[in-house]
């Protein structure tokens, strides 16, 4: 059956103009709110900063505070609020304002912040406005580099926060490896560490879509640790679908910097139904992964590439013998080889950790 | 006890669950309480754009009316949800339809105490959870426009604004016909991007495009 791809009444309309005004909104769909919210605010701020480069005047050096509060409440009675739509366009001053936004921060209401003193601002929001329990992002333009603070419990709990420095530094392979090491320890290593919707084992066999679940866990972890970078997953390209692409938004239509391509593979001794996998199959799987990593890096003109192997085989391979036959090829093709061993049970972890002690 | 007593109409149940998801998404996006006709618009866009996320629409056709799309079953479901306490109505009013019948009008939001268990249960159904994420993103995309602008932008929708069929008829985009101009347009943005747009970005681009057209920025 022929598929009709026509656009009907929108045929011939200026789609390019809409793309040129594209803010990347929606790229963070599906991320938990406590990860998406600070990311969206950081993008908002970076876009504004980019817009200001072509303007003569700047924004005031007064902090911007964003409260995750899309619904209208009592604050409307205490503050004069203005509504701004299409907030991600970068055309609106952000600093010196208290914003009420939803998780995607595509529109918001704001009131003016008069004081430049952080303590006074906190007191005002907590005591006078009684909004101290609303998740908040604070951007302080007076620091260099600009520092962003995320208070997931609100400004009423000022000691519980995450902070990010907005620098122009590229993300390195070393930094990515460091982040995935942390994700591995916290969310992958053992079945108990894995989130309930991302369990990788069923009756001590790898689940059928283990790669997909690992990809989901990595997406959340990388998004959390790299809030100023785009973490793209499973996008099609002429040479296939890459697993994870880490890139920077230049806020110039049509321009993106592709930093790192990550190809994910799961190594198995047995499949989800118990069928055995040979060492030969494992080698072929790894070779395929290296080829994919090279192809996607070249196709996207990315700076770096890595093959991330999540080893779910019955026996650990601490000397990484699985990489021996491909080490030269990976090195020639500039593909980093990384491996993490996933234990099928806590019993195995104990055996590995305490066997020889 | 007669087994017939406990026959469940899964189609109707699915419709009410979907409506609960729509109300929750509207609240998260700051669009609640939502006037009834805008709720129909939201439901329509969630149906016509579902293929952008490789999801099937709940309803592949819609009644074309002057003021925007209208789903008789959705209207019945809203009233049902209000009746069982899952939804709350504000600003109750009676208005006459185009066909001369009176209907209840108001703005709706969820009653969290009763909608929460329904929404939490969706965590056990991965496909329904995916649909929930998609519907939430449609709500976020609409929230960029502002309430009244949603109604204006809706009239520029590629499928709805097609002159064929005319008012009072049924628009079919997924039941018997397999052409969906709205999804096609959302996917067409890829042609102009260095990296194919994410499904979420396509929704925002599409809604943004409708907004630009509504403001004659063609």
State the gist of this model.
Chain A has helices at 15-20, 33-52, 75-78, 118-128, 173-188, 210-225, 279-300, 327-332, 346-354, and strands at residues 64-68, 82-84, 97-101, 108-112, 136-140, 146-151, 162-166, 201-202, 205-206, 230-233, 236-237, 240-241, 244-249, 256-268, 304-312, 335-341. With 357 residues, chain A is α+β, with helices and mostly antiparallel strands. In chain A, helix 5 crosses helix 6 (210-225).
List the topology elements.
The complex is a heterodimer of chains A (357) and B (218).
Chain A: H1 15-20, H2 33-52, E1 64-68, H3 75-78, E2 82-84, E3 97-101, E4 108-112, H4 118-128, E5 136-140, E6 146-151, E7 162-166, H5 173-188, E8 201-202, E9 205-206, H6 210-225, E10 230-233, E11 236-237, E12 240-241, E13 244-249, E14 256-268, H7 279-300, E15 304-312, H8 327-332, E16 335-341, H9 346-354
Parallel strand pairs in A: 1-3, 14-15, 15-16
Antiparallel strand pairs in A: 1-5, 2-4, 3-4, 5-6, 6-7, 8-9, 10-13, 11-12, 13-14
Chain B: H1 10-29, E1 34-35, H2 36-48, E2 61-63, H3 72-83, E3 87-96, E4 102-110, H4 112-121, H5 126-143, H6 147-154, E5 170-172, H7 181-188, H8 199-214
Antiparallel strand pairs in B: 1-4, 2-5, 3-4
Describe what you observe in this structure.
The complex is a heterodimer of chains A (357) and B (218). Chain A has 357 residues and is α+β, with helices and mostly antiparallel strands. Helices cover 31% and strands 23% of the residues of chain A. Chain A is built from nine helices and 16 strands. Chain A has helices at 15-20, 33-52, 75-78, 118-128, 173-188, 210-225, 279-300, 327-332, 346-354, and strands at 64-68, 82-84, 97-101, 108-112, 136-140, 146-151, 162-166, 201-202, 205-206, 230-233, 236-237, 240-241, 244-249, 256-268, 304-312, 335-341. In chain A, the strands form four sheets. In chain A, strands 2-4-3-1-5-6-7 form a seven-stranded mixed β-sheet, covered by helices on one side. Chain A has a five-stranded mixed β-sheet with strand order 10-13-14-15-16. In chain A, strands 8-9 form a two-stranded antiparallel ribbon. In chain A, helix 5 packs across helix 6 (210-225). Chain A is globular. Chain A starts with 14 loop residues before the first helix and ends with a helix. The model of chain A has no long low-confidence stretch (mean pLDDT 91). Chain B is an alpha+beta fold. Chain B is 48% helix and 12% strand. Chain B has helices at residues 10-29, 36-48, 72-83, 112-121, 126-143, 147-154, 181-188, 199-214, and strands at residues 34-35, 61-63, 87-96, 102-110, 170-172. In chain B, strands 1-4-3 form a three-stranded antiparallel β-sheet. Chain B has a two-stranded antiparallel sheet with strand order 2-5. In chain B, helix 1 crosses helix 4. In chain B, 45% of the residues are buried. The mean pLDDT of chain B is 89. Classes of the chains: A alpha+beta (357), B alpha+beta (218). Chains A and B meet through helix 1 and strand 11 of A and helix 1, helix 5, helix 7 and helix 8 of B.
